[in-house]
Specification:
By secondary structure, the chain is an alpha/beta fold. The chain is built from twelve helices and eleven strands. Strands 6-7-8-9-11-10 form a six-stranded mixed β-sheet, sandwiched between helices. Strands 2-1-3-4-5 form a five-stranded parallel β-sheet. The longest helix is centred in the first third of the chain and has 17 residues, at 22-38. It is globular, with a radius of gyration of 19 Å. The relative contact order is 0.11.
Length: 315
């Protein structure tokens, strides 16, 4: 499907969601490297917001563009790991003006909004879907690195419920292509800077329990981010750490994007479908990992989340 669409296009843009994570970066760069190798005569560009430093070792990251050219119209726009067009951020006009579009995604909230779509909500990651689209024989070591990064991050190193036997088979094949899996897991998933450890410590110390211990929540505002000298992309991992609280069915972590406006990240057990919960507030994601953005204070937002969670918990 991907190859057929690319063959009929001379100019191709690749884009992913705002605040790109491992799966977004890995899938975008994996497709980019494949296209650059197999279609060298075509004009191919990848557009993403600034990516976390830990992913900048990936081949092709140096080619990522952060601004769109004026009046540029592409024959094909490929969207990766993006549940809706609004989440493209600055590259949305390129998608809107493109002659055709192709979306590859695994978010259950995706409504198949592109011209053509390859959406598999049961897949572990968009990178796993890219693997199947390209085929093992077409995946070089450099592409394998990109895809392995995405799978590792969206499965929480194969711990989340989205991990299936097929996921492990894909990961094994990528490892056989020479991926330094230990280094990737250690340096992109486990390791934190001193500042990241400090802000995580702050968030954990100031966390609160709710729903009689079945929920745990914390937040970081702009002032604290400035005090600890961290940016939003350095807050990865906090919500997952909160979720590890014994007895917690729902973990909520909020960070301030601008004064009074928060990004809310949710993690859950089978007791709460956080994708369905997030959609109430205009967000989306997966059953066990989702999020949304909303205005208000920490206390006000948490009350809304609690009310939505209670409907699912039957209390």
């Amino acid at each position: 499907m991907l190859t057929e669409m690319v063959k009929s296009a001379e100019s191709i843009a690749i884009g992913g969601h705002v605040r790109p994570d491992g799966d977004c970066v890995g899938s975008c760069l994996g497709v980019y490297l494949y296209l650059k190798k197999h279609f060298p005569d075509k004009q191919i560009h990848v557009y993403l917001e600034s990516i976390p430093e830990v992913f900048q070792f990936l081949k092709g990251s140096e080619d990522i563009l952060h601004e769109i050219p004026e009046d540029k119209i592409y024959d094909l726009f490929i969207l990766l790991d993006c549940g809706d067009a609004q989440r493209l951020g600055f590259s949305a006009p390129l998608y809107e003006n493109a002659k055709t579009s192709f979306c590859i995604d695994h978010h259950v909230s995706n409504q198949a909004f592109a011209t053509k779509n390859y959406i598999e909500p049961e897949a572990s990651s968009t990178c796993e879907l890219v693997y199947h689209l390209l085929g093992s024989d077409q995946i070089s070591e450099e592409i394998a690195e990109c895809l392995y990064v995405g799978i590792v991050h969206d499965t929480g190193v194969f711990r989340h419920s989205c991990t299936h036997p097929s996921t492990m088979c894909v990961a094994a094949d990528l490892m056989e292509k020479g991926v330094d899996f230990t280094k990737i897991i250690t340096e992109t998933f486990d390791e934190k800077t001193f500042a990241q450890n400090q802000i995580m410590g702050y968030a954990l110390v100031n966390a609160i329990q709710f729903l009689e211990g079945r929920g745990v929540a914390s937040y970081v505002d702009l002032e604290k981010m400035a005090e600890y000298r961290v940016q939003t992309k350095q807050l990865d991992g906090i919500v997952n750490q909160l979720k590890l609280t014994k007895g917690a069915d729902l973990a909520v972590f909020m960070y301030e994007l601008e004064k009074g406006f928060y990004k809310v990240s949710l993690r859950s057990t089978e007791a709460v479908d956080v994708s369905r919960l997030s959609q109430i507030f205009g967000g989306g994601g997966h059953a066990r990992a989702a999020g949304f953005s909303i205005s208000g204070t920490f206390a006000e937002i948490l009350e809304k989340v609690k009310a939505a969670a209670l409907e699912q918990l039957g209390k």
